[in-house]
Amino acid sequence: MKRHTLVIAALLLLTGVWSCKKEDVNGITPGGGGTPGKVSNVIVKNEHGAATISYALPGDEDLLYIKAVYTLPNGTRREVKSSFYSNQLRVDGFADTLKHSIQLYAVNRSETAGDSVEVQVQPLVSHIQLVYRNLTVRATAGGIRVRSLNPYKGDVVIVPLVDSMNTGEWKSLDNIYTSDSAIGVSIRGLTPVQKKFALCVRDRWLNHTDTLYATLTPLQELIINKNDYSVYQCDNDTKMSWGTTVDLMWKGLMSNEWPCLYTDESSGVATTFTWSVGTSPVKLTRFNLLTRKEGALWYSKGSPRRFEIYGSNNPTHDGDWSKWTKILTCEVVKPSGLPLGTENNADNVAASTGFTFDFDEDTPPYQYLRLKCLQNWMGSYFIEIQNMSMWKTN
């Protein structure tokens, strides 16, 4: 009899432990529990395309979370949840400045929702509308230049279309995904023939703005003949290592092979080297820099991360910086964001095609260029360049 009593007690103890663990893991208590109360003292702070709702929680001990339920103007039903550790939540996805009804529910650990509290929000002008209001498009070398302002850095997508044949058949160009406050993106690869363009702005909830239309003729863009390049040696330029020279940047091998331009690894200051792009100044449009892969890694060792481009038409061999004008600040962005020494397929694809940067359309023509490497992916100054291609317009 005593042994049976001990067995029953042990089973009851195990059952209790299992029940506690189940509640701890899931935060849910199956069945039971009354209906939770309502939130109170609701305060709404309207934002651009969104609103933050603050409230006082009900006093239910088994409260699990508060949820907001609402429907966007495009018919999408949304639910936003906030745990009982917080006293606010954010509703978003709005593309207008009208009033919208939000239903707030308190939900307990048995997933029972209490009665709703209706709240009115009236969002400020959405990010996509702010971007659309400032949206401009103009012809540029080899394509179009899209500009706008995104003052509150919202996540937006600019959707460009082209009617190349003027037949009303619109085809997609590359979407522009950005949260930059100042947007300036060139879309290249278009022939210098008059075309119709259409652009709108959307967000991740598929809200769209109106459409901006423009008829433009892209300017002709030409790749600069690398036979026109030449080294312009300045006294304060960085020394090269391993017998390499600056002209390997355009005379070297293209397939990630040795040798390539390779500056002094021991340099304790920013790396610089100088070259000419021809016998007279040219209107530069963009360039593509291909670095060298080290083992299995592209973003490694002397692969440039942050660097600047300077232009001059009257340099001196002493390297006097007063003769030079900074015309571009560049930063290579690793698509995956993975730490140093780890890369994925997106990183490999981006690096293997080289890093392309556009010159501002207002940049005057230059004959001489100077690159200053501020930081490589190791955090030092030396740089490896397999190849440099540059484009110009007439």
UniProtKB/TrEMBL annotation:
Residues 19-123 form the DUF4959 domain. Residues 250-392 form the DUF5000 domain. It comes from the Bacteria. Residues 126-226 form the DUF5126 domain. InterPro entries: DUF4959, DUF5000, DUF5126. This is DUF4959 domain-containing protein.
